[in-house]
Amino acid sequence: SDGSIRLHQMTSEYPLMQWNGSTKGQPIIALQWALTRPAVFFALDASSNIYIWDLLENDLLPVAKQTFPSEKVVTMTLLGEPEKANGLLGIVLAKESGQIDIQYVKKKWALP
């Protein structure tokens, strides 16, 4: 609820990493690992901002941020084919109006 993200290992109750203030205090409403690249995850905050984290590139801050100011994004999910090495990765966004939007991710964040 405060925008903090914690990375846990299943064998410990304490996080391996913790990022405070990554969304400037906005609650995170969806978070998902990339299906095609294990070190990348996406976080959606309550202000319709998507943060892209690539832990191999930078483990302190998101490597990119995309804002959707025109309409509130209420949730997201990722689509892709992890068994294929084509690097195709998409983000499906559900907007408050009921509209669905699909955005494709740059290859550098999608390739295995």
TrEMBL record:
GO terms for cellular component: cilium; cytoplasmic dynein complex. One of its GO terms (molecular function) is dynein heavy chain binding. InterPro entries: DYNC2I1, WD40_repeat_dom_sf. It comes from the Eukaryota. GO terms for biological process: intraciliary transport. This is WDR60 protein. It comes from Poecile atricapillus (Black-capped chickadee).
